[in-house]
Structures are given as structure tokens and as C-alpha cells.
Specification:
The protein is built from eight helices and 16 strands. The protein has 471 residues and is α+β, with helices and mostly antiparallel strands. Strands 10, 11, 12, 13, 14, 15 and 16 form a seven-stranded antiparallel sheet that branches. It has a six-stranded mixed sheet with strand order 5-4-3-6-2-7, with helices on one face. The protein has a three-stranded antiparallel sheet with strand order 1-9-8. Strand 13 (406-416) and strand 14 (422-427) form a beta hairpin. It is elongated.
């Protein structure tokens, strides 16, 4: 377990990734003997990390570091006392196509994203001579050979004043500790001669705990790791009513794009409205933006509530509450048929659904309960600030609102208890364009709206999903 400061603070995260080969030759399959051999092999790997042949290479740059050779660094302009932040000037960006020459250091600019320097873990295979003449020996015996590739992934946070020498000390300590954790997990889940590969995952915990690394056995589902999660919750004094250490909770590094193509949390680039004595209450966690025309599905004019439901389902998935993928339109319709709310002919149709159907599908597919808020006319929504603020404060889930023939997703409210002023953070599923964050926010498809946004005479139903009490 490696504990680190919060990535949102000023500073830089160093992330080292690479593979180490775990190879064990077993003359016997006796359990205690195998455990000893595996432990000795892990000790050998820790010795490799401490050896002078261990190398760290800064990705997309010519910078190579030998941390155990008195922190020897190339190019020669870099010394052990060079500040880590100065490494940035050697890293090529997408805009720099200059091959073979040192990139020009850019002027720093304010950015909400955490600064990350990626490094590769490597071993120097060429050693200084003279080399002994190799000797070949053939032995015939019955034995077992265990082999696994260990996916090392270590992160440490450094301040702007930390030198390369200091950073290397932290990285080596982190890698050694990670190998110890991998050894513990490997031995704990070892069955006969079968090894489960230990995989490190990073989790961003509430402040001030920050970024934490846990090691899980690959292939073992979250449902069978509840005791490990309980121990982690106790260790870090976390509440036992919501997940923090499921695989879906793993921290997503900002320099890595999501593979499914959906935008995450577009509201985070928006400026909050200013209200007299007002406070902002927002959705907690990560969701995907689902809207018209995605997934090669032409639902323009009828699928807005389906898309709002998909956004809600993505929230429960990415918070680790459920493992099911976000349902398709057809799966949503089939769930309503199975629930007994619709006839079989509903599947494959282009019929609308509303808040009540969204509530039913969440219960049928995810086992999630929801509260329904009834509003007789749009003008009364302005008086629901306290209820909505409390929902985002306690549950933190996206809210689906349906009125007339339109559905939207509410991601938060800005509300003043003294004046009653309110603004709604709206995610609009009626958008039909591409995943362009600037267009989506500039054109108001994700943005803050006033009470006039709602049809003042139409009635509205709001579906407020409730968090399951689980870890």
C-alpha cells in the first residue's frame, strides 16, 4: 500500500510502469517449499530494483536515469540535483515534431489537470567485461516451472522543489514496497502450482488521504474481495456505505483517453454561477455523457429519456456499484417488458419513456431504488432547491427530469437558502453532434440554467436514484 498526496495539489506525479519477470524453478510441489521459492524469487526481484543495472527512462524524451549509480543521468546537462520539473523541457509533446533535438521549454500555463511524468522501468542487460565463458550443463529431472509477468505501476508525488535524486529515492522505495505487496497477494491466492498475477491499482481517496495504491489478484472478481476492501476502509478510516476500492473506482490519469469514446464529466470545465449567499451542490463522482445519435443509434426526437437513463447507469457503473455495462435502448425496453410495465411489442419501438420508467429500469437492471419528485408545474421547480441540494449532498447521483415530451439530466444546483435563488446544472441529451467538449459547453448542451429554462405550465417528474449502502 503506497499512500501519496492529493494529485489536485500543486506538484507533479511521477508514474513508473514496466514489467518484471517472475520465474520459479520448483523441484517439488510441496506447498511450504513452493512458498519459500516464490518468496526467494521476489527477494531476487527486489535486489534487481536495487542494483546498478536498474534503469528509469523518461517517456517521450532522451532522459535516462540510473538511480543506483549515484543517480547517473543522461543527457549530461542533467544532474542528480536538477529539479524534477525541469525534466518537462526534455519531453516532446504532440505539437513538437523536432526529431533529434532538444525541445524548447514552453512557458508554463495554468491548467486544472495534474502534471504527470511517465517513466519506463528497464533493466540494463549489457554489463562491463570481461565476461566468463558460458558453460552448458544438461540435467534431466522432473520439475515444475512457474512464470508470470508482473505489471509494475508505481506513482509518487513530488513538489516543485524536489530534485531528481530525491524523486529516485521515493520511486525506489515505492517499487520495493509494491513488490512486497505483490508477494503477499501472490502467496495468499496461490493454489497449487497456479499463480494469479498481482495487479496494482490506484485510487483517489477524499482529502487529505490522496492517491493510494492497492494490489489485487487478477481474475478474482470484486465480489470475492470484500474482506480486503473492508480492511482498506478501516485502514483509511473511510465510511462503509459506499465503494472506494472497487476496480471501477481506480483513478483515471488525465493524460490517458477513455477507450469507449464517451466524454466524462463535461461540467467540470464550467464556471459556477454566483448567487447571494448561495452554495453549489454537484453530482459526486464520474459519469459518461450520453446523448442523441450515439452508438450508431438514430433516436433523435424520441430517445432523450433513454440517454438520460444511460448517463445515470454509467454513474453507477463508474462508481463501482454495478459491473453491468450501460444498457442499450433495446435492453432498456426489454427490462420494462420483464418488469411488467410494457407489452412485448414495445421492444424495438420508438416510444418515449419517462421518469417512472427510468425508476423501474434502474430497479430491474441494477437493483437501484429511486425516489420520485412530482412537480405540478414548471414554475414550482424553483421552490425545490432544498430538496435537490440535499439530494446532491447526500446521494450525489445524476437526476433525470421529464416534463411534457422532453427529458434532461440535472447534475447539480446552485441555491441560496436566504434568497431562494436557484440555478440548475443541466446535461442535455438532445445534442446530436460529436464529442467536442468546447462545442458542448459553449453552446449550452452542458451548462447552468435559470428557472425560466423549464416550461412554466408543464408538470414534471424527477427520478432521484439512491446510492446502495455497500462497499
Amino acid at each position: 500500500m503506497v499512500v501519496d498526496s492529493n494529485p489536485s495539489d500543486t506538484g507533479t506525479i511521477l508514474r513508473v510502469r514496466g514489467s518484471l519477470q517472475l520465474r520459479c524453478h520448483l523441484a517439488s510441489t510441496d506447498a511450504s517449499f513452493m512458498y519459500q521459492v516464490v518468496s526467494r524469487t521476489f527477494e531476487s526481484l527486489r535486489s534487481q530494483v536495487k542494483s546498478e543495472y536498474f534503469v528509469l527512462a523518461v517517456c517521450d524524451s532522451p532522459v535516462i536515469i540510473w538511480p543506483n549509480k549515484n543517480v547517473h543521468v543522461t543527457p549530461e546537462e542533467i544532474t542528480p540535483n536538477t529539479l524534477c520539473e525541469d525534466i518537462q523541457q526534455w519531453i516532446k509533446t504532440d505539437e513538437q515534431d523536432s526529431v533529434g533535438r532538444r525541445p524548447v521549454k514552453k512557458k508554463s500555463k495554468k491548467n486544472s489537470e495534474v502534471n504527470i511524468i511517465n517513466l519506463r522501468l528497464m533493466m540494463e542487460v549489457t554489463k562491463p567485461g570481461p565476461h566468463p565463458v558460458p558453460t552448458l550443463c544438461r540435467t534431466v529431472q522432473k520439475s515444475h516451472f512457474l512464470s508470470a509477468t508482473l505489471p509494475m505501476d508505481c506513482v509518487v508525488r513530488i513538489s516543485c522543489n524536489d530534485t531528481i535524486k530525491v524523486a529516485c529515492e521515493q520511486l525506489l522505495e515505492g517499487l520495493i514496497h509494491q513488490l512486497c505487496e505483490m508477494e503477499r497477494v501472490t502467496l495468499q491466492h496461490m493454489k497449487g502450482t497456479k499463480l494469479l498475477v498481482p495487479e496494482p491499482l490506484h485510487f483517489l481517496l477524499p482529502e487529505p488521504k490522496g492517491l493510494v495504491t492497492a494490489v489485487y489478484p487478477a481474475g478474482v472478481p470484486d465480489s470475492k474481495l470484500e474482506m480486503q476492501r473492508k480492511d482498506l476502509h478501516q485502514q483509511f478510516e473511510l465510511p462503509d456505505n459506499r465503494p472506494y476500492f472497487r476496480r471501477a473506482n481506480a483513478y483515471h490519469f488525465p493524460n490517458e483517453p477513455y477507450k469507449d469514446g464517451y466524454l466524462r464529466n463535461p461540467h467540470q470545465v464550467l464556471t459556477h454561477p454566483t448567487l447571494e449567499n448561495g452554495k453549489v451542490y454537484l453530482v459526486q463522482g464520474i459519469y459518461s455523457y450520453h446523448h442523441y445519435m450515439q452508438d450508431r443509434m438514430d433516436d433523435n426526437g424520441w430517445g432523450c429519456a433513454y440517454r438520460s437513463l444511460q448517463t445515470i447507469c454509467s454513474w453507477f457503473q463508474q462508481q463501482g456499484y454495478v459491473e453491468q455495462p450501460v444498457p442499450t435502448h433495446k435492453e432498456i425496453q426489454q427490462a420494462l417488458v420483464d418488469f411488467g410495465d410494457k407489452q412485448a411489442s414495445f421492444v424495438g419501438s420508438r416510444q418515449w419513456i419517462g421518469s417512472i420508467e427510468v425508476q423501474a429500469v434502474l430497479n430491474q437492471l441494477l437493483g437501484v431504488t429511486s425516489k420520485i419528485m412530482f412537480v405540478s408545474q414548471g414554475s414550482d421547480l424553483a421552490s425545490k432547491g432544498r430538496e435537490l441540494a440535499n439530494h446532491f449532498l447526500t446521494e450525489g447521483t445524476p437526476v433525470m427530469i421529464g416534463g411534457g415530451v422532453l427529458a434532461h439530466t440535472i447534475l447539480g444546483v446552485a441555491w441560496s437558502e436566504t434568497t431562494g435563488q436557484i440555478r440548475y446544472l443541466i446535461l442535455d441529451p438532445h445534442y446530436t453532434g460529436g464529442e467536442d467538449l468546447q462545442v458542448i459547453t459553449d453552446k449550452g448542451w452542458c451548462g447552468w440554467k435559470g428557472p425560466e429554462f423549464w416550461d412554466q405550465t408543464a408538470y414534471y417528474n424527477l427520478c432521484l436514484p439512491q446510492r446502495p449502502k455497500t462497499i
